[in-house]
Amino acid sequence: MFPINRPRRLRQKPQLRRMVRETILTPNDLIYPLFAVPGNSVAKEVKSMPGVYQLSVDKIVDEAKEVYDLGIPAIILFGIPEDKDIEATGAWHDHGIVQKATTAVKQAVPDLVVIVDTCLCEYTSHGHCGYLETGDLTGRVLNDPTLELLKKTAVSQANAGADIIAPSGMMDGFVQAIREGLDEWGFEDIPILSYAAKYASAYYGPFRDAADSSPQFGDRRTYQMDPGNAREALKEVDLDISEGADMLMVKPALSYMDIIWRVKEMTDLPVAAYNVSGEYSMVKAAALNGWIDEKKVTLETLTSFKRAGADLILTYHAKDAVRWLQEGGLG
């Protein structure tokens, strides 16, 4: 009798489908990004990211409590300082906005893991991720002097209570420099989640509204990766591993699932994928227009990142995703 093999036998009922499902998305896979700004009782929605807000420290604490109560294990903090300068002072100052938010969250929700974005673009007056030559209008960052700023920033963030340092500027040698800085100051137990393969992507547009981090001139293509390159990503990952990275990130996620897969194949380290702002905003815009089912599309997308090899997923959908998982998930 033909056919003998009938894979549909295991698809007949929801219970059967759940029993044989190969990839399971859980709250433990998710990390929720938050944007800290000066002031009190501030909750300003980002116009290009419906449902995402710039929050003052008191509101960040409220969000952190909600995230923890939902079972999401971690947040990642980004900061928008009151003032910007060429020294990126707000990034490494002990009273910087991320430092304040980190300390407040750890005091209020000590068991929530606080990851901090260790970059400079939100804090420089020109919007680039480090020092520039005097008069430079191309955006070519001076690599080695910038490493010293990143060291100072990481140490300051660790001193404020950060659990994980996540450098994102794609400077050559940034993992080793930060590792040395942390170790020198007694933070040898603080892990580094490196943005190991971060592409110069058009998907970052809405984030730059949220973090007020658009470059004032030029672009970031001299330090972020060319979207056409895959082997280069593996080289970047290999270098970061050799420099002491504890976890690795691929950013963006949706158009780079082949990179997530390749990175996972080459290392046993945990791999994170950043479901970036443009990916989020496209789903939200289509859902608000009634063109897609937001719940189904979101959960399918997040599950696909995990299927591709991501152990951790940074996503603005995190809170909604957990609530949908509690309702039955993919079904």
Order of helices and strands: HEEEHEHHEHEHEHHEHEHHEH
Taking the sheet with the most strands, its summary is:
10 strands, mixed
> What's the shape?
globular
Strand content: 5-15%
* Rg, Cα atoms, Å: 20 Å
User: What is the terminal separation in angstroms?
Assistant: 32 Å
- Count of DSSP-assigned helices: 12
Mean pLDDT: 95
Structural class: alpha/beta
Helical coverage, percent range: 25-40%
Strand count: 10
Low-confidence stretches: none
Question: Strands, helices and their partners?
Answer:
Elements: H1 14-20, E1 30-36, E2 43-45, E3 53-55, H2 57-70, E4 74-79, H3 89-92, H4 97-108, E5 113-118, H5 143-159, E6 164-167, H6 174-184, E7 193-198, H7 205-210, H8 231-243, E8 247-251, H9 257-266, E9 271-275, H10 277-288, H11 294-308, E10 312-315, H12 318-326
Question: What characteristics describe this protein?
Answer:
ten-stranded mixed beta sheet, 331 residues, alpha/beta, 10 strands
Question: What can you see in these coordinates?
Answer:
This protein is an alpha/beta fold and 331 residues long. Helices cover 39% and strands 15% of the residues. The protein has helices spanning 14-20, 57-70, 89-92, 97-108, 143-159, 174-184, 205-210, 231-243, 257-266, 277-288, 294-308, 318-326, and strands at residues 30-36, 43-45, 53-55, 74-79, 113-118, 164-167, 193-198, 247-251, 271-275, 312-315. Strands 1, 2, 3, 4, 5, 6, 7, 8, 9 and 10 form a 10-stranded mixed β-sheet that branches. Helix 2 (57-70) packs across helix 4 (97-108) and helix 5 packs across helix 6. The chain is globular and about 80 Å long. The model has no long low-confidence stretch (mean pLDDT 95).
